Amino acid sequence: MELDKGNLFKRVRNYVPILIPLLLIAIRRSLELAEALESRGFPGKEGRVSLFELKLGWADYGLILGSLGGLSLSVWVFLYYHVPLI
What we know:
Blueprint: H1 8-39, H2 58-80
C-alpha cells in the first residue's frame, strides 16, 4: 500500500483502512481493562478527594432568590390576573 504518494487527501484516505481497526482495537481493549479492574475491586472513589470543594457564594444565593422571586411572581400573576392566550 502506498501511503506517501499523492496529494494530502489521497494520503489521508490511504491511512483510513489502517487507523480505523487500530482505534477499534484500542477502544475494545480499554473497555476490557476497565471491566477487569472493576471486577477485581480496584479502588475507585474511596479515599479520593476532589481538587476543589464547592461552596455557595453570594452570587449563587442571589440567583436562587431571584429565581424563587420570579417563580412566585409568575404564580401570583397566573392565579390573580387573567392573561389572554395567544
